[in-house]
Every structure is written in structure tokens, then in C-alpha cells.
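As a warm-up, study this chain.
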Amino acid sequence: MHIKFFKYQGAGNDFVLIDNREATIKSLDNKLVAQICDRRFGIGADGLMLLQTEPGYDFRMIYYNADGKEGSMCGNGGRCIVAFAKHLGVITDTTTFQAVDGVHYAKISAEGDWVSLQMIDVEVIEKDNDAYVLNTGSPHYVKLTTNLEAKNVYNEGYAIRNNTKYKTEGINVNFVEKSKETEGYFVRTFERGVENETYACGTGVTAVALAMAKHNKTFGTISTPIKVLGGDLNIRFNFDGKKFSNIFLEGPAKLVFEGEVEL
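Now compare it with the structure written out below.
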């Protein structure tokens, strides 16, 4: 059958979105999802999402990684599906929806292209030598570095993601450099499930902002601008020294094109 799809991107993190409120799609084959996300033989995307009905909420977000498997929370995907929901007329300026890691609240601009998405609270940040490890809806490894622009993120990220400690479950690997122009950071990410570097990672930049607050022993209400290959994002949150709360991932979410795909 032919299904209408919409292609969205949030700071270069791109997704195929499908309105499945009528439950036309009962299940998706992993191989088919991977083919749709393939940049040479399919539409091309970092992931695929279904927007579905959910009692008591505006909708449910079902997320598949580019490798075809259902994934953990995707922050930029969450922002893009909020923009999609507004485009469909499901929501107006605010929303509460269900995702794999629980309930999320979001606010969207009147133009529908800027989304502020609330992420889950975080209490645990561990150390792996000089790197930080935490879960912001997806597991992340955060490592400070220098000369990030020239770094071979694929090779170094692949090695960490596939080492003996992380190979089975996988982990997203974020390399971080303090920005010379702003109070924020420059971040590049190797994403599990895509198994490559992406132009942005929402849960990744969220993890970076939290890890850097802990690293710098910065407390209170914090706003952290982060530059990624695909643009600019912002993370704001509260940190009392033990718990990170009221975490919001903010940035662009834009419709690229729409079409039909055979499922």
C-alpha cells in the first residue's frame, strides 16, 4: 500500500514521519524501515516515526532508528513530531504526548518551526575514566576534547560504542569542545542505531549540557547554547547539585518535503 510521509529536520537531524492515527500500519518490518531511511535506496533519514493516538494524551510517538529497530528516546525527533502534530492540526501551541521514556511536554512557536521540548529528569551521572556517562532518554558518553572540527568522530566514536563495555547495549558518543565565541559548546555525536555521525543529537546535546554543569560545578537555573554540525540548539534546566530537573531541549524543527512511499 502507498502511505503519505513527511520529511522533517531539526538542526540537520532528519526524520520520516507518518500519520498513523487511523492505525493503518499495524507493524513495521525492520528491513523495510532501514530501506526507507537509506540515503541511496530510500527516502533518507536518521530515523522514522509514527504519530499514533494515545488515550489521555495528544498522541504517542513511536520511533525507529535508521537501522530499522525501535529506538530509545530521540530528542530532535521529539521536537520534529511536535511540529508535525501542529501541521496536522492535532495541537496548537502546547502538547503533552507519550514516548518510549514516558510523558513529554512541549511548546511550539506560532510559525510551527521552533520547539521547546521537556526531557526526563536526570539524577545519575557516572564517570568512565575522564568521560561522563548518563541517560537522558537514551544512553550517552560525553568526553571533552580539543580541535573537534578536525577529529575523526566516526572512527573514535565507533571504537567507544563497540568496546567491550558498551558493545552489547550500545551507547551514543559525544565529543565536546568549549566554544570560543559563546558561553556554550561545540558538539559532534556518533549515534548508535544510525551507527554513524549525525548532524545533531537532541538527547546527546542534553547530556552534554548536564555533564558540563556537573563538570564545572555550576548550580541553579542554567541555559547552555550548543552548536552542532546542523545548526544551533539550546538546553535550559535546573541543577541543585544532585538532580537535574525542568530540562528543556530547544531548537528548530522544519518540514523539508512530503510524498508517498510504498509499504
